[in-house]
Each structure stands twice: as structure tokens, then as C-alpha cells.
Amino acid sequence: MRDLDDQLPGAVDELKELYPHTGRAFVLGITGNPGSGKSTLVDCLIRSYRDAGRRVGVVAIDPSSPFTGGAILGDRIRMQRHATDDGVFIRSLATRGHLGGLSRSTQDIIAVMDAMGHDVIIVETVGVGQDEVDVVSTAHTSVVVVVPGLGDEIQAIKAGILEIADILVVNKADREGADRTVADLSMMLDLRGAAAKRVRILKAVAVKEQGIGELVEAVSEHRAELDHETEGRRRALERAETRLKDLLRSLALDRALARVEAGEGLAALVQRIAERKIDPYSAAEKILAELMGEA
Amino acid sequence: MRDLDDQLPGAVDELKELYPHTGRAFVLGITGNPGSGKSTLVDCLIRSYRDAGRRVGVVAIDPSSPFTGGAILGDRIRMQRHATDDGVFIRSLATRGHLGGLSRSTQDIIAVMDAMGHDVIIVETVGVGQDEVDVVSTAHTSVVVVVPGLGDEIQAIKAGILEIADILVVNKADREGADRTVADLSMMLDLRGAAAKRVRILKAVAVKEQGIGELVEAVSEHRAELDHETEGRRRALERAETRLKDLLRSLALDRALARVEAGEGLAALVQRIAERKIDPYSAAEKILAELMGEA
Predict the structure, then answer these.
(1) Is the pTM for the entire model greater than 0.80?
(2) Do A44 and A159 fall into the same domain?
């Protein structure tokens, strides 16, 4: 395991060179609430893919401190068992400090791992946040991990992340209510109607390594379907479009801020906005007009 | 209750006019995982502020379907009791369909409610997602709702959202383990050291309307502190800066996409990126160079 902690997003020239060598890795997104056991599941998947001789990259997007930027200790410790395995490459990304750019940073890391020749890249994110869902929804196959006894949560899952799932895993399935949860999820999927995409529902107990083979199998099946379907092509175009827009947004902001710094400075402008001397809409339009030679 | 369902973010001219009339409302952010009961808590807070004669705005950022854009039915029903109250203005925002712009849309709605003369604006978001945390962290006072028996969740809370909280509410405090959760949270706060900001921890049972008075009191106390502290000023500047950057990003993207459409068109460009004929970095740089008259 090597750890890449420098700031990759800045290395645009290298990313340009890498780009033609990307597009070969299979990207597997895994999301679920804290406590759903998805890190343990990822750990099992790494081992399974390694046993099959695959090179595995992992991008772990942890909920981390806005101040320390630290990743969750427990996950790091769990990952240590792969520390001496050169076929596993793990990169932790803080969710903070990437304003408007979590998706961009993640896609940069995926591009690097892809060009390095990793066969499978697992992107693990937490929760139901928009950015996290966006990241996972651009994967080839998206796995959503839930636990039995969802209670109120089921409505949120229904409304929020059910549609991005290609595979639903009811983890901790040795707990009471697992079958009920599977039944509830099935019913919710049925309600979507006949035109909806097929979603597989599996049970697993990741800490006991139960259900891992079935999950790997379901991922393979979904992947094979993708290769033969227009859905695979649709997703590739969606990823390219998201990528382009992320970069436009982010590079344009960099230039706009450089423009502000060359003028009155960001601090002074922000001060005027906070004091209601100028509204932020007019300020932003003025900067862009200057930048584009309209002023 | 009136419901504003047209697309506000487009109405930039009106927002410019409104801006000088903003900055008077108190913005209260509330976040927590699905099932933490924060909608019920918000419901109690609305009633409490209404009883005190305040006009209340609510921005509910629901996890909703990427396809239907629908909000969660249960919350809508709960809110119905305010349907005939002209002093309550509720706006639901889907978390999807605002790519790069959830924060912008939310701030636009807040600006409108503020200019309309609402005294308190409650922003309710779900979970630990980056955008959601960003939205709440720009509020005057941020409340994080947790439930007893967090288990693994506690690490995520510790790492992810503890720092944005001004007030931690342990809701459903009639459940087993509530005191333990309070103790755990206290310990985690203590570990931050003496320089860290003060965070209040409260217990509540929102469905029984227990602990609501204490929460309103804690919010008032925090608000009074803010008014007298440099922290209040720091947050105002942070909000203005975030607002400006959001608008720059979003307006620049609009212009860049218009430029692309005037040329080969977005679909054709995305196709070339997906086929690896051009890398997205070079594509984005070329568009921006053209836009800025550099090409």
C-alpha cells in the first residue's frame, strides 16, 4: 500500500498526459450511512479482488474535521492489513476543504489509479449528501449499504439514494429485522414500475465475511450487463459531462479570484458585500465581465 | 403558509434589489441524520417562535429523488399544521438538481425570506454531506441533532460535524443510553482543548415537546454571544465570501456552457471527452481561454 498525500488536483499537466490511458478500470461506488459497516465490506471486497489477482485502488471519502482534515482512525487501522500489499493503493480524501471540488478531486484520483493500471477502483463515501451521492452515481456500479431496522430512515433512503443503487446490501443481516428490511426494499423497488432498472438486493454480515462472494458475483453480473447495454454508454457520457462542468466551475473560480486579488483584493470585496455596500450578484457579474474583457 | 415553487435562482435582478434589505434575519441551521427527528424538532421550534410573535421562514433541504424531485411526504404532512399561518413561510429544496448550486439556491431563498421581514429562518438539512454541512455552517447558530446509541456513528460525528455544532441536541432522549451519549459527546468536546469554542449539549424528546424551551433558550444565548463577539463578524464575512464564490462558480459555468453551445455544442464535446479524443482539463482550459479573449 502506498499513500498519496500531495495535492493532486494541482498537477493538471500530468493529468492531461494520463487521460488517454484512463477508462480501463472498473469503478465501484459504495455508500451508506455511518455505522452501516461499509468500510468492513470494502475491506472484504479488497481481499476478494486481490485473491483473484486484481489490482485494487480505494478512494475513501471520510467525514473529517474541517479543522484537522483527519480521516477516521478506525478505518485507517482496518486498512493496515493491506499495508504491505503493493497491489492495493488507498487514498483518503477529506470531505471538507474541497468546496465545489470534492467530485473533481475524487475524479482526479480515480484517473491516476486508472492510468496506473488498477483493475478495480472502489470509491467509498458516507451518507446521503449531494456531493457524495454524485460521486457514487458516476461509478460503473453503485452499491448502497443499509442495516436492518431502518425505521424512519427508510423514507429517506427511498427518496434519496434508492435510485442511484444498482445493488442494495442489507449488511449486519444477522440482526433482527433483516428479512423485513429486504421485503420493504423489494416493495419500494416494485413501486417504481416496470420501466425501472433492475436492482439486486443482497444480505451480508461483513464482519463474519458472509455474503461477500454473492456481492462480488452481483457486481460482476451488473458489470457484464453494463458492457452490453446503452446504460454503460449513457453513464460514460454522464461522467465526462460532470467532469467537464466540475473543471469549468473550478478553473473559472481560480481565474476570477486571481482577478479580484489583482484589484481591490478578496478581503476588501467580501467586506463590502458583508456591509451591504454591494450585492454579491453584481459583484460576481462585474468580476466576470472584467475577466471576459466586456468591461 | 405560502409555498414558493418557481425557480428563484434565475431572478438575479430582483435578488440584487432585495440585497440591501437583507442581513436582519437570524438564521438557524439544523442538521442530523435521517431518523434523528429533526423535522419534529423544527416543527416544535416553529410553534415556539410563532407563540413569541416571530415570523418564521423554513428552508427544508430534503433528500429527494433525482428523478421525481419530490420531498418526503411525512415532513410535508407534519408541516400542514402551519398551512393556514401567514407568519410561517416554508420552502422545500431538493438536494438533487442543484449541482454546484445547493448552497446558492439556499442562500437565495434565505435572502428573499430575510428581505420579506422574517425574524427567524430555519434551515433544515440532512446528514453529513459536504454541501449540507456547508449550508448549515454558514448559519448564525448551528444545531446538530443526534440520537442515543450511536455506536459506530459517534466517530463519524466526531470527525465530521462536531466542529460545526454550536448546540448538540440528543433527541429521543427517553431512549436507553441517552445519558451515555451526552457523556460521550462531552468527552469528545473536552478533547478539543481549552481554545475550542463553547458547545452546548441538550437532551430533548421532540415528539413529546420536551426540551424545546431549553433549546430555544440555548439558541438565544448563543445568538446574544454572537452579537457581542468577533465570531459574529467572522461568520458574516465567511458567509459573504462563500456567497461570492458560489455565484462566481455558477455564473462562470453558465457563460462557459453558452460558449460551448455557440460552438460545437456540449453533446459533441462530451462525446469527444468520453472517447478520450480530448482530455477534460484541456477542453475546460480551451473554453475558458476563448471566453476570456485569450484565444
Answers:
(1) no
(2) yes
